[in-house]
Amino acid sequence: MIFLQTWLSSYSATNGCRANSTTTRHLGCRVTRQPSRLSSFCYRGEYLKYKDPIKSLSARIRDLLGRMTLEEKIGQMTQIERKDAFPDVMKKYFIGSVLSRGGSVPAPKATAETWVNMVNELQKCALSTRFGIPMIYGIDAVHGNNNVYRATIFPHNVGLGVTRQRIGAATALEVRATGIQYAFSPCIAVCRDPGWGCCYEIYS
User: What is the rounded (10 degree) CA torsion for 133, 9, 57, 95?
Assistant: First the structure.
């Protein structure tokens, strides 16, 4: 929801629309101001409520969802693995999110620049679709940005509790340096069975 709000708030149209009453400029688009409120936000002659920043977030989301096809909605709720995220797949299926699982890298010993370039290319594909909704890229950075060559690696969570070290901020900086928006950690979990395969993800 926060990501969608940020995207909707940052939109700036480049084409004006006709207006019969007093007009003003707002976010790069000619808009109509009626006596009580800013009433129009136009793109190529059509009023698009979901791109109007003066509307409530819920109203804008309802408007956007009302314009989307079932295929577009499914695509936006879908997250695919990096190795399957080809440009034609991103565009054809309106993919909303891509992830790198453990060991999923764009190239052996890939630099931060290589990661940034990959994420940017995928983002271009997402933005080229009908509504231009940005995709979200996630990475399995569970103990440091461990997929990235020469990133800082920390112990697994099971060994961090006694150290009282705060690694979240450090990991976040290294994740953002690769152009990635979010990581799948830290997590909160309860392990009642030591035989659980992911018990090491629990803080001590």
Answer: 10
Give the pLDDT score at 169: 82
Could you tell me the pTM of the whole model?
Answer: 0.72
Residue numbers of the chain with a pLDDT score lower than 70: 1-44, 161-165, 186-189, 203-204
Look up residue 85 and give its two tokens.
């995220």
- Residue 189 tokens read as 């979990």
CA-based nearest residue to 186, from 148, 152, 144, 149 = 144
Strands 136-139, 182-183: parallel, antiparallel or unpaired by DSSP?
A: parallel
Q: Report H helices in 77-194.
A: 87-92, 112-127, 168-176
The span from the CA of 200 to the CA of 170, in Å, is 20
Instruction: Let me know: does 18 contact 45? Beta carbons within 8 Å.
Output: yes
Return the C-alpha torsion angle 165, 169, 174, 176, nearest 10. 160
Q: How far apart are CA 32 and CA 18, in angstroms?
A: 8
Predicted pLDDT of residue 36: 34
CA distance 196 to 31: 58
CA atoms within 13 A on the CB side of 82: 20
- In DSSP terms, which residues pair with 79 in a beta bridge? 97
The residues, ordered by sequence, that sit 6+ positions from 192 with a Cβ below 8 Å of its Cβ are none
